[in-house]
Amino acid sequence: MMDNLRTAANGPVLKIVLALIILTFLVTGVTGFLSNESGNYAAKVNGQTISQAQLEQAFQQEKASLQERLGDKSAALLSNDQEVKLLRRQSLDSLINTVLLDQYVNKLGLSASDEQIKAEIRRQPYFQTNGKFDNNKYLEVLNNARQTPDAYAEQVRRELIIRQLNAALMSTEIALPTEIKQQAALLLQKRTVRLATLELKSIEAQQTVTEQEVKNYYDMNSKQFTVPEKVKVSYIKMDAADELKNITITDADIEKYYKSNLSKYTQPERKKYSIIQQSSEADAKSILDELKKGADFSKLAAEKSTDKYSAQRGGDLGWMEDTSLPNEIKLAHLTEKGQLSKAIKLSNGYAIFRLDDIKAQVVKPLEDERSEIEKTVKQDKAINAFYALQQKVSEAATNDNESLAAAEQAAGYKAVTTDWFDKGHIPADINFNPVIQSIFFGNLIDNNSPSGTNSDVISVDGDRAFILRVDDVKPEFIQPFDAAKAQVTELVKRQKAEKQLQVDGEKLLTALKEGKGEQALKAAGIGFGEPTVMTQESQSSPETKVIFTLPHPKENKPVYGLTQNELGNIVLIQLDKVTPGSIPEDQIQQIMTRESYQIANTMLESLLVNLRNETEIKIGQID
Known about the structure:
By secondary structure, this protein is of the alpha+beta class. The chain contains 24 helices and 23 strands. The strands form eight sheets. A four-stranded antiparallel beta sheet has the order 20-5-22-21. A hairpin with a 5-residue loop joins strand 21 (about 560-565) and strand 22 (about 570-580). It is flat. The two termini are about 40 Å apart. Mean pLDDT is about 85; it is low at about 1-40.
């Protein structure tokens, strides 16, 4: 009946099987992921419609994912209209990419078989208990993710097909083993070196400067000695965590939440069905007659059903909830255990359904959920109290805009007053970008003076908020020469020392290359240290970069080099030995696979760009 996922994508029996994928694994295909619908649309890709409903579903999934990743911090993001619009557009782009790849792989003839999907689902660790597949866990995971069996089957199918596409891309571009070996040999190469250091500080201490040199440097670089604008602020901090401490929950609160959200704690009634499928109505009626005469349903299904997958299980379709029933079973109107349907028309045949068993609705007792409900209700109340406090303090700060006195009274505690600070040294308690923006780039400073107004409520990370005002301002200014003189003197000395250090280093390097290094080093008061073995992988410094660019020593004669380290010191290098790196053959294959995947991912991104450029994409209503 169903040789692959695409040939029977809209078959009713296919829908039945997919509705039970989490219980029976009779995976036979999927309904269309992106169907053509009339009316308003979100987008059209080569004429294929992405509906408003599909966009909304994808958008809600993106929101749920964002909330799971960021927790309470997501509230501030989702309260911003521009961010919400961006998230909705990203959801649409993801759907468009899905359609583009779907159309492309269909052209290539790529597909995933029923057995591949079945095996892939069983392999996934989050559906397993003690290393074995667990039907109940699978059902729970899908239910918590608010994902239908059809959608999940489609997701698995697409992942398998994309793997095939990646494999095809990987086969076109792959690093050769010889290249891997060369790269590994360089990366794992070992170099034995000895280092000698000329310290900048010691030479800097020997420098002398004149008054005129210092004055000249100041005149040419006066802006370098600018003192940034500084402010003092007063602020009121509101924290959701503080509200949580003050919240008390009663039994009535818990019971009210439980009753209002009873569906969350209810396992709906479930029914178990079986099917026998036939090619014609006459054959189906013949089977029905046999069943009415007492024939064994499972035996007939195994022997005569044209659906080979359900036939292997005696027609068993597993357990289903009413909300997930395919229309074909709904049409059967089966209400009693053991009841048979009439011959039901399918898109590719006829079917007889039987209602095998019924499991009554189960409601989890309140006591089992009490602790979790208490946490939820407490958090909800704390958030409501937090936002109510913000509103109260904001109104007070607006009505009395000349001070924070009214806002303090509304908050129930005094504002905090800071010492002087600038943009580069923000007090930790208010060191948040929205607060910094409000202080230095908002309307709280006017012509280098406090504007005398209170800020609006400034939300931070979704669980904190501030109202503040600037109390005093020290405008930016350039230090006069006398104030900056000591700092300028040190800079001029360092500048002179750096020049002398470079000259001294070059002289020593020349002496080393000429075979006169020992005497020159002794005169400079330095010497090479003990041998050190270095690799590019184990070291990351300016010295390493130079060490691995030096030529290999020949005839046991060392090679010399010179570099500058992070402290500004001159480092002389004596390279004594180079040991080639090597890599085991089994690791070569691992590296090849990793690089191939990186190449394939890059090519897949390029493919999507090309597909978008070559595709007619119409954007409809997305807001």
